[in-house]
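Sample log: MFS transporter.
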Amino acid sequence: MATTTKIQPRALVRATGGPRYAVALVVDALGTGLLRPFLLLYGVMVLRLSAPATGIAMTAGVVVGLGCMPAVGRWLDRGARSTVVAASMLVRVLGVVLLLATPAGYVWPFAAAALLLGIGNQAWPAAHAALVATVAHGRQRDTALAAGRALRNAGMGVGALLATACLAGGATALQALAAITGLAYLTAAALAWSVRLHADPAAAPPEGGDDGPPPRMGALLAANVVYAFCLNVPEIALPLVLVTQLHASPVWSAAIFVANTVLVVTLQVPLTVLMSRFPRRTVLALAGVVLAASYLGFLAAMSLVPGWGAPAVAAVSVVCTLGEILYAGSATALATALAPAHVLGRTLARFELSTGFGLAVSPAVITALAPQGPAALWGTLAGATLLSASAVAPSAADPGRQVRGGGVAPVCPGPYAAVRSRSAAIARRRASSLRGSSGRRPS
């Protein structure tokens, strides 16, 4: 059986990037929670734009923002780490400044602000994963990535609660929240930049084929687009069906969202550690099965008698959240483990591009399927997710993998492990030369 990582708080903070970087994550997440869920309201209430125009501008910002990922990947592959993280935060600062400067009734400046915010939101996950992969390796890296996600969800949840409490202030409160968000992003960028972490992938020796192109991950990337739909189920799909089809109170949607956040914050790290005894592909495939089962559970809940549908949907949402946790704890970790050191940035950029694309198209797909009936929505999601799970499941034909302790594990070393091996070899050669020049005659 593979070794299971234990939760050691101090070691986990170091593996996540250190105390200053952990604080940067929390501050950034707080700022994101203050504004991101209410950006649509800002466009409607403060700038007095129509809801369709605001939504189109926001969607365009997310989609166009995905175009920055290839450049982010190349920048990471040149060794930048904390600088890229800080840059993703500073771009959002510019977005907030532009948002505050946009006059009422002008959609194009709002669209430009949404684009800058979208670029920062798209670039951050790949930059963060690359930074963590540079300071942590193996299963400790998986746990550190999970801890970062738990921290981020906690910060965003608190920020959203604070923003909700302030919404009674109307447009003035939204402008104040935007200003606070900009200050939070600026503070987080300064903290992240102060970490001064830079990698040197060029120092890695081209042994074992590690100097080749990025790994082929077509099946994983395609499956990840479908998997990413689960991240929008609590925010889009469930509120939509609860209000329009079950005619339930919006309180149910709010309760499900809060429960999702609490479960992710409390269970993301423990579940990732628990599942570290299994291969990442197996965990990712299991996540797909759990998600598909939850989608079928939502389908069954929709057929219950009036009054029972909403509680049943809330109960099944717990299963959906567990699938989301398994997915989040294994997907990025798998992409990172598959990446040779010198193309880590480009590999993560491609992976996050597929995640961003899934998040961008899922609202349109969900809102198009929902009016066709529960079977069209939940049956389609369940079938597509099961197909994706079968595509990522481990098989004997997987290249670069070997059986260890009864499971399939990647044989690719942790990022920059080759750098450490080369340094050790140089040290041994220097020690040998010193012994040779110590005055003793060779025998």
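Observation: The first strand starts at residue 401 and ends at 404.
Observation: Strands lie at 401-404, 407-410.
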